[in-house]
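Thread: quick sanity check before group meeting

JM: Hey all, I'm pulling together slides for Thursday and realized we never actually wrote out the predicted structure for the chain we discussed last week. Dropping the sequence here so it's in one place. If anyone has concerns about the input, flag it before I start.
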Amino acid sequence: MATIQVRVDDEMKTTADLLFSSLGLDTSTAIRMFLVKAIDYDGIPFTVNHRVPQSELREATEKKLVRLPFPFGCMKGKIWIADDFDEPLDDFKEYM
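JM (edit): ok, ran it. Output follows.
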């Protein structure tokens, strides 16, 4: 059996321990659960809400620090949103 060590600050460790304890888990089990889901999902099993500004990404690709699968602008005009895209939300306006 292998060991994984991760360094985090004391506050993060304490907060994570309290959170997982309230869910009936210890932190090690929660991390193992994340690894199992990531392997099953073949990637990170949740949305990562980190965005790099376009200007920084463009500069990084020009310097060959990042390789994109497609060049900038190649999908222009090929992606569209249906006119009734927001229609399902109309049913929930009273709750917003």
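AS: nice. The CA atoms of residues 32 and 38 lie 10 Å apart. Residues 54-85 form one domain.
JM: adding both to the slides.
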